[in-house]
């Protein structure tokens, strides 16, 4: 109790006493003064010691539990959480492994020359239209001079917003420049939306598994993440409805086409059902459209936004997978009534997105080069896609590895037989110069997973067969060896 | 009570009941179901009605108060706050006025052709080195091709971080590329730092008045903002120490040189004292250096970071005022031990800053063009500065308007005689085609203020005398008219 006697509660402070106490204990945990499984003092005892009411202690302990610092055992008291789920410190601890994986997803890992990366979903730099874009940059600078380098309006360069409106109409989305918000990439889009609508303690529903960057952002807002399993034809709608009722989420984050990481697409029926639920329960849906252009075999990849008669969807559009991620450019289409909140959040994030890039991209759209580029990328990716489909059948199916063929996109989601962890497989592959992305990082529960993701964005056609053959050889050995890892958590549904 | 009978509390939910209740009532307030000054039900009554414990109601009401939705009157109960200080909704309500002002600060307002803007602190586009930069962009694209458009590392392009290290040494800051984090402008720097270190309920100390963008970001994190008045030689150190002890802030946000909006600079003594307090109480200091290059008359504008022997300062460097805001480029120098938290927060914000701009700016530094540019800008601004100093003496002093001459920078902070509000003056000026920035927006308390800010960034030398003469004529009339506005809040110290 000596430790706790030093806690200083200022009764004259404007800050609630329980918040003061919460912070003191939080600091003691973060600084290692209190260690894993240390027991906190009983409520009455600490209340006496500090000369405060029991309720103050109860509230502080509740908040500590809420924030993941402690756990409670009924009948025996409150204890410091061992692998502390407390947000930032934890982020730091797990950094080396997880960040590695996340960075791989963005092609940010220096890979050895002889490596084949099925991990990165980012196109190789040779696919970027560098010369075209260089000429447009020059054209913009000669035309606009210094104005191209001033602060752009926070909502975005108006002519670009107009061009995007016309681009969207080709995809069945009819909107106005007033409803378009330019962002510095989809990740910022998710961040800005969270700032505007997600407060501490709010719930957010996500597909499980889902994009890791979205989870990080929602967590950073202090949100409670509610998982809804995703199936080949979309989220489990009954489960979703139940969780909407129970948790009253601030928003639902979904990728209805070629979901990341699974590659699954929602059926037309489930898309409609999702809209219906949003309308019935007045929940905001954030549709992350990072790839819907890349549909193959004539699959109709309608976006939710194009079906959104009631104007309830926030549509997030990224160009990073199909254009140039380094531009840091994307946009939102926002329901009319939500403008001001989004604009204020964007302003507090980085004021505005680089005007030069916006202006050059505007010309890119206006001159029709964008359409040609999409066509070009689609052909390139389709070739790789077909090769991969063929390789899966040839190399993976015989090993008992299961998968569902996506209808487009860049990602394939594979599942090891029971008893194996893809974390272990990752290490085995990495040693053999093949990079894959283990499924565990896409689940909020941070366990192990039988799933892994293969992407065709950063591999050349000739590498795919070679790489998949090698992968199958590695896996054959891997699967023969007894499953040695301790798999604590399975995801039985998926 | 009928309204409240409809509240549905799910006892089986993983979400605490008080959080569920908090959200229900919050929604009723936001949706206008509960109106200003409506009384919430007495605790016991609501507890009976919902079949929950009294403590649940107490905790929900406390959280509502904490979040600015309700106020309590001792002995009479809990009531809905009238001018709701609740965060987002409020942001929306006050949007038209405040956002206008904030945007003016960034030169984002379309001003009429015949207007003179002393409101914007952003340089006019003719001062941007467009041709030089265009050539560097071309050079980079010819050199790096597609790599310039790939995802840049989240921490920033390594060669640029090296260049910045060498640039910083000229300002007495000795660091390593590992301690430099590239950001998309200073606003994002503040946002990233907040994400990494400020949680819901934490306190943050700011100078009062201060930069509005910082306040918006801290508020968006759910932080409690603690004001410490700033004087001509820096914050009141006794007050600061007291508030550190009382509020145990997560960080202190300060602009030690040519503070925005006051133009005040900390004395050497107070800079040292600030460092000492940070060290004694283990508080993080965020130094926002947006202008220290612009010191005139040989004033020694040492940054805190250059005095930071104990590596406790996060240094935020913006180039928007002296270079090109549209690049959205700045950087942080971070204490060694805080890397991972900052990097994770940057990653969750926008993954990385545009690589093309980073690469071109790197060349700009390496080729020495940057040094020439600073020199050029300093000369231009110094000319305007001197004209303004002269005009203040000539036009403002005789009117009883008080001010302190800054030692550099772009901003002048003026104070009207007692009884007058600069909000009113703003409107008078705007009608007469002169833009000023009323002081009220720089105070967290949102009241009226006698202060206003004049900036020389966006006015040409010949406009300054003309504009100030006109301003003095407007003010003469304004001061003669009886003070008609209802000034509720003064800031007596400042």
User: Greatest contact pair?
Assistant: A-B, 96 and 95 residues
Oligomer: homodimer
The CATH class label of the largest domain in chain A is: Alpha Beta
Distance between the termini of chain A: 47 Å
State the CATH architecture of the largest domain in chain A.
Answer: 3-Layer(aba) Sandwich
Counting helices, strands and paired strands, the structural category of chain A is alpha/beta
Query: Strand order of the main beta sheet of chain A, please?
Result: 4-11-10-9-8-5-6-7
The description of the largest β-sheet of chain A is: 8 strands, mixed
- Fourth-tier CATH superfamily name of the largest domain in chain A: Type I PLP-dependent aspartate aminotransferase-like (Major domain)
Assign the CATH topology of the largest domain in chain A.
Answer: Aspartate Aminotransferase, domain 2
What share of residues are in beta strands of chain A? Answer: 5-15%
For the record, the count of structural domains of chain A works out to: 3
Poorly predicted regions of chain A are: 84-99, 484-494
Helix content of chain A: 40-55%
The total beta strand count of chain A reads 16
Q: What's the rounded overall pLDDT mean of chain A?
A: 88
**What is the overall silhouette of chain A?**
globular
Q: Number of helix segments of chain A?
A: 17
Question: How large is the radius of gyration of chain A?
Answer: 25 Å
Walk me through what this model shows.
Two copies of one chain form a homodimer. The first copy, chain A, is built from 17 helices and 16 strands. By secondary structure, chain A is an alpha/beta fold. Chain A has three domains: 2-86, Winged helix-like DNA-binding domain superfamily/Winged helix DNA-binding domain (Arc Repressor Mutant, subunit A); 94-123 and 372-480, Aspartate Aminotransferase, domain 1 (Alpha-Beta Complex), CATH 3.90.1150.10; 130-367, 3-Layer(aba) Sandwich (Aspartate Aminotransferase, domain 2). In chain A, helix 8 runs parallel beside helix 14 and helix 9 (186-197) packs across helix 13 (339-350). The first copy, chain A, starts with a helix and ends in a 14-residue tail after the last helix. At the A-B interface, helix 2, helix 4, helix 5, helix 6 and helix 7 of A face helix 2, helix 4, helix 5, helix 6 and helix 7 of B. Chains A, B: GO terms for molecular function: 2-aminoadipate transaminase activity; DNA binding; DNA-binding transcription factor activity; pyridoxal phosphate binding.
């Amino acid at each position: 109790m000596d430790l706790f006697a030093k806690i200083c509660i200022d009764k004259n402070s404007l800050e609630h006493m329980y918040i003061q106490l919460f912070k003191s204990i939080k600091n003691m945990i973060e600084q290692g003064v209190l260690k894993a499984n240390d027991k906190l003092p009983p409520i009455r005892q600490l209340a006496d010691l500090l000369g405060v009411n029991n309720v103050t202690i109860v509230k502080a302990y509740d908040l500590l539990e809420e924030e993941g610092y402690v756990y409670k055992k009924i009948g025996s008291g409150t204890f410091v959480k061992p692998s502390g789920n407390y947000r930032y410190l934890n982020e730091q601890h797990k950094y080396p492994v997880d960040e590695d994986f996340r960075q791989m997803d963005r092609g940010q890992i220096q890979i050895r020359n002889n490596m084949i990366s099925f991990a990165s979903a980012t196109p190789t730099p040779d696919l970027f239209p560098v010369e075209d874009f260089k000429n447009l940059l020059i054209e913009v600078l000669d035309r606009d001079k210094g104005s191209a380098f001033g602060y752009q309006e926070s909502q975005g360069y108006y002519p670009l917003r107009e061009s995007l409106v016309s681009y969207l109409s080709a995809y069945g989305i009819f909107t106005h420049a007033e409803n378009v918000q330019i962002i510095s990439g989809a990740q910022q889009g998710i961040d800005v939306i969270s700032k505007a609508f997600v407060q501490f303690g709010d719930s957010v529903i996500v597909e499980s598994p889902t994009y890791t960057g979205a989870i990080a952002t929602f967590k950073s807002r202090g949100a409670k993440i509610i998982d809804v399993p995703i199936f080949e034809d979309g989220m489990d709608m009954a489960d979703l409805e139940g969780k909407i009722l129970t948790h009253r989420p601030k928003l639902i984050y979904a990728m209805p086409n070629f979901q990341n990481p699974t590659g699954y697409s929602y059926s037309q029926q489930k898309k409609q059902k999702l809209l219906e639920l949003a309308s019935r329960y007045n929940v905001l849906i954030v549709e992350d459209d990072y790839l819907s252009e890349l549909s193959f075999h004539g699959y109709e990849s309608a976006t939710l936004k194009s079906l959104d008669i009631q104007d309830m969807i926030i549509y997030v559009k990224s160009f990073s997978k199909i254009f140039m991620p380094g531009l840091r450019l994307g946009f939102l289409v926002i329901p009319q009534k939500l403008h001001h909140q989004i604009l204020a959040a964007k302003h507090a994030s980085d004021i505005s997105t680089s005007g030069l890039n916006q202006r050059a991209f505007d010309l890119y759209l206006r001159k029709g080069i964008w359409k040609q580029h999409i066509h070009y990328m689609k052909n390139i990716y389709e070739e790789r896609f077909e090769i991969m489909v063929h390789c899966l059948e040839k190399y993976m199916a015989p090993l008992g590895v299961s998968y569902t063929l996506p209808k487009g996109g860049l990602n394939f989601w594979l599942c090891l037989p029971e008893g194996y962890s893809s974390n272990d497989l990752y290490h085995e592959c990495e040693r053999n110069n093949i990079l894959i992305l283990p499924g565990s990082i896409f689940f909020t529960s941070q366990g192990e997973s039988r799933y892994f993701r293969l992407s065709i964005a950063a591999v050349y056609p000739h590498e795919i067969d070679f790489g998949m053959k090698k992968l199958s050889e590695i896996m054959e050995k891997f699967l023969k060896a007894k499953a040695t890892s301790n798999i604590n958590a399975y995801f039985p549904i998926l």
